[in-house]
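Researcher: Please predict.
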Amino acid sequence: MIGFFERMGKLGLYGVCGSDDARMQRKGARRALLLSVLIIIMDASAGATSYENVSDLNPGEDLDKSCDEGWCRSDMVKRSDAPSDAGPAVEEYGWWQSYGRDSDSDGMDDRLESVLRGESESVSPSAIIGDDGRKTVAIVVDYAWHPGATDVESLKGVLAEHGWLEDGSWFFQMDVLDSIVLDRVPVSSLPDILSLPGVILIEQQNVLEPYLGTATKASKVRPSEIYPDSFWSNGYMGDGVVIAILDTGVDNEHFALDDFSDSNTDNTNEPSDLADPKWVAGCDATSSQQTECSDGNYDPDDADGHGTHVAGIALGTGDSDREHIGYAPGAYLVDVKVFNDIGTTNSAAILKGINWVANNADTDWGNNESSRGIDVMSMSFGTRDTSTPGEEDQGDDGQNAEARAVDAAVGAGIVAVAAIGNDGKNRITSVGASDLAITVGAIDEDDSVEREDDEIASYSNYGPRVSDGDNNFDDEHKPDVVAPGTDIISAEYAPPNPLPVGDEQLADDGYTEKTGTSMACPAVAGLAALILSYDDSLSPLDVKNIIRSTSEQRGEPSDRPNSDRWNNQYGYGIVDGEQVYNCLIGGDCATIQTGEEWIYIKSPAENDWVVQGKNYSFSGTLNEDAEGTSSVERVQVRSVFSYKKDKPGGQVELIKEESGWTNLSLDEEGRWSTIVSVPEIDVNGYFDAKISLEAKAKNESGRWSAVNKSSHSIGNIDLGISEPEPGSTVSGLMEVSGSYSTVDGGLIRWRIDDGDWIDGPTLSEDNKNRDEYTGEFQISIDTSTLEEGDRDVQVRLQTGDGLFSDIDSRSVEVDNMPPRPNMIVMDGSVVTDYGIPLDEARVGSFLEVRGEVRNEGDVDATGVVVSLYENGQRRYETTIPKISVGQNAPFALYWNPSVSGTKDLSIVVDPTDTIEELDESDNLASLPFDVLPLKQGVDIVLVEGGIATSPAIPNPGDQFTLITMLRNDGNLDSSSIEATLHIKESGGWLPILSRSLFTIPAGQTSMIEFPLSVSASGPLEYRITVSGPELVDEDWSSNEIEGTIVIDDSRVSSRLVSLSEDEEPLAVLAFRKTGLILTSEGTQIIMHRIEEDGTIVRCSTPLERFWSGSLTTTVDDSSIAHIVWTRRLVTGTGVLSETISYSTVDDQCTSTVPQDLMEPLPMNVGDYFGVDIDQHDGLIVIAGYLRDLSSGPAFEPSESIFTLHGDEPQSASDWELVVEVIEDIDTMSEPNVEIEVEIGKDLLHILYTSSRNDTSSEDVLGLWYAHGILGEDSWTYKRAIAVEGSSPTMAVDEVDDEDRIAIGWIEGEEDSSILRVVIVDEGFSTINGASYSVLARGANLATISERAGAFYIIHDSVSPIGPVASIGVIDPEEGWIGLENRLSTGWVYGVSDRSDGLSLPFMQRTTSGSWSLVEVISNGNLDDGPSNIFERAKASLGLDDTEFNILLAGLATVMLVILLSLLVGTIRQGLSNISDRRRSASVVIEADPEDALEIDEDAVEEVSPVSIPPPEEIELREVPVPPVPVDPSNPFRTVTCESCKTRFDLSKKVRRTSCPACGSRIEDI
């Protein structure tokens, strides 16, 4: 129920009304009605316990106890009695029950009761004579709730009835208390005020008054010769902290209070005129004008001098000689005037000022970033002692309004510092009585820095404070501390002008001396500011505890057993700035003990060092002699870990971590124990690391013991070698040096390899610094006593306690011999069949023995001979020209075993010892190898991979030779052999040629050639069989072989290419007439230009300098190469990362600025790899793998495929990224997986590598196909197509409005791998059964490449003659595949997916290690486009030459007929015209252009010639020609030439022309 009504209150039941009073009252009324209904409905018992009320805290009759005296508190003091516009109480309900000055608990202050009885008169300095004839009083009216408008109205109504005048009177409602402060209250009104609903107490306002450069040094905040270490010496001067001075006002124009830099010399300047003002805000709480204490913009002056003096002590910057500097000169000033100009006040101004300070604890004053809110408030005042002689007045108990207001301000985050008073009595009053304030007494430091002569000042009040009855004895421990207060020199105010005319005086650089606890109070306020400038996260309670616990204890404890430190005069002691600073940076502030010592710490022993990363037993026992331990039920322990670091400006930062308290049980003998782990400090530059182990106990009655501590410095046992460098070569006397750290001395020990440990230098106290034992060590070792070669130098540290550091070691090479090479045959030499490792081979096989020789000597070796021995007999020898120091050089030794059996093969470097080496014993490597015997009898084998053509690519119509290889694997010579060539026709296999061999010797190989000629391009399927009339073969299954060769109008060209030693081809790009070779050289991508004449030139600028392993290319129709690669970079934060870059390059090696397409991915988080690119009509698509180590399950990366696409992208922003196109793939950590992407008509196609489950349910790497819509993620169509597939390649062609996909890959183990090619549709159905595979032993690369609309596949493999490159043709439209034509010998590199010219180029590495550029070149002309109208017509119609010639013949015939018809018609018309002219000379003509220019342009129109029939013939006579009749509708008229009399028709609009017969001009027609 309580929770429910509290929520109702939050919803506005106790909401404070604003301007819409009536509306709020109506809402409150409705809520009250609702509340009443709910109460009626609910259980009565619940309602009875819903609220606390006075009767809950006091017997009911006590409330009416004083009614007989004429005043009585209302019984409406429950929260439920609150009016609807009241607010929730901000103070704890029932606090007034312990109010010390209401001894009879009737709600009326005892001092006011005395006035009511006439025993005394008002002491208010603002009193006037009321209507009752008595001096008015100043009071504080306290409510059970936060008073609202109804309460204010009721209170003012009562006051008005008794003649209270609102004008000129105080009436102020507190925010931080449930109180209204007012003065000039008629005495007669007090009983009526007490009877108002909700009024629970009427307090008399106190009459307050102020409590009137060695101090800072004596307090050890400013460095001195006696106390050099201080806050100031370490750079902390209160910077950024805001101190509010609640006093008589401050003349902040004083040169110690105006600015921080003291550069201002004009005291007429306002704070806003200064570059660095100390003043940030102000409030005049003594004014009845709210504007003077609202937003902080008012700047009150000091007419008394007390406030200026106090401010100078707290935060003044001192005079020009820097003598009279305050405690925190770096702090800001907030000036709160709470005393009038004569230096006195009622509580009203004090309460108003504290209320304003609390409300502005977090205000942004708007002048700079550091001066926000208020952090500390200094209050050097208290109540006047009005007691009579002999009367004892101990002051307040902390329940008075000012003390409660201070507690509220502390709750808002403000450190409150108050003066204790200057009566020299046991009296603590007003703000100094606050539970939470730091109450300060004064000492007389005898004007000296030394503290030995400091003693309590005679005027300083002392404690304890009056008890508030809450059994918290610490609240009564006042003063908290003492500070210098006698003869303190500080800033002097400017006295006000006493005359009504003239300017006010301004403070300048004057100083004066004052004495009192008022001077001690700002000293502690300044010290609090210094603490907060070091650590602004400390709470007010933290600051108070630090100041108390670090104070220098004086006097005997006055309150045992509650405290073993507090003294009623000195409090917890004299403030000590040095100890405060050490506490902050050391983290080991002495705890103020409030209980007895019940437990002892036994282990670890006090002050013993402990080591980082080690575990220690933390144990102890009960102090059985101490009273109260018999019922101890548990022990709690914790650890406090700290270290320090230097900060800029000489400051020191403390890093501190506390564990929580942990409960431990006790054994039967009262012992307890636990394990404590000392943390490792993973930062640089730390010092003074400590761990404090703490323990305390609690008995069954709830009492806690004192906290027992065991403090330990933390050290580190560590050692590191700096010299010699790893892998360095040493000789003679080797110096081993490094650094170490330990905790208690010890010694350095060393050894070589696994030898005995030898003692080195001893560590002593001389090596100890401010943190631990650290230093440098050096050991000298005579290497001449050591064996030559690699040696491991090991060093470790042994501490005085017998602990050992980790071993640090250096691998060095001991070399005391002259510089020489040293050749070693590296492990891993193997017998191969052209690179394919073999475990065995038959007699007669042609084999290679491959391996590497390394030079581990001091100088290069030249002319290094490497020999192969079979059972001690030399079989082959090769020479390596040069092996540099530290270099591995490969070798290949050839071997043709002639005898079966297990052979002992030996590889010997420098067999004749020609080269003088450091060590001659490591020049030999041996390996056994089994040579199988030949089969019994005759075994003829048609060798797979032994088919070739000459030329390599047969041309249509040309004769070529098909060559096949036969081998006799038997041990007997064969008889006559006949080989027959069959060609596949539609009806089956047709034998066309036969060739005979007389014999094939045992174990030998022979070649048979078939001459052929094929007229059409395309695949030619063949079958070759071997037989013989007398042939007896052990295995006839190997006597037949089938395959396909391709007939194509192309030729093969090859030329050597010179690359640097470290270069390896990545891609070859074919432009229109030129090309580009991309190579890798370390982390660089190098470009080589292929000129039109075949010359190859290295380009001057690398494409990339920080390549990271993946690259892909394509060429568009404009002969522009598009290149994508992965590269490494270091981000702005210094993280090594990887991204994907894109650029275009032309045939002149001119590249565009690379575009980084992906967010840099830190290398320790993941990587991009296996990228591919495709382009079509300006659309660029990139696909690749993303490996993310951070998002996958533990120890497993998350892998996915992404795509990027853009239309003619010009910048990185033009690309669209789609992540997780294919999710949850697993490349099984293979380093070189590949991906293929192709753009289709409607789909995007991808080939990729990921794990799959084979028949044994084990994960293996497989090849997958997927397709989806470009721009979409999470594709659903995925199909596994191969197990252990590699080198995937793909091309897409559009056939019948859908995609045809040609896919090729290498599959199987290296010794039996095959090349597989299929043609499928979008549903992965094979087209016309187009699925073909061919043996491709040892294949590394297969690539489908497009040239002039045709698709070729180029791959390498190991044939019987070694590594070869082969080519095939794929026709997706017809659905056939033609494999394979052997092109050249060597391994294939860098085939591009498209050529824009006649050449299809790639790089090839021969067995000798040289590089060549191989080109498959079309025999046609370069297609630069149709050269004439006929070529363009043929291309547009899609006709071949024959079809187009037929079309041309037909068109020519038609044109000839048309021309003949036109010719005949023209002749006939000519003859007719001649005849007509003879008869009439009549013509039809258009106007001459020159004449047309002479006529009216607006009337001109173009007309067609019209033929006019001649008139009938008449007899010619010499008479005028009669006019021709005119037809008005005819646009022409007949004109007669006067010269020749020729008549002709002419447009009526033409006015002049020339005669068509004689040329005469005819005018004005």
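Model: The chain has a mean pLDDT of 82.
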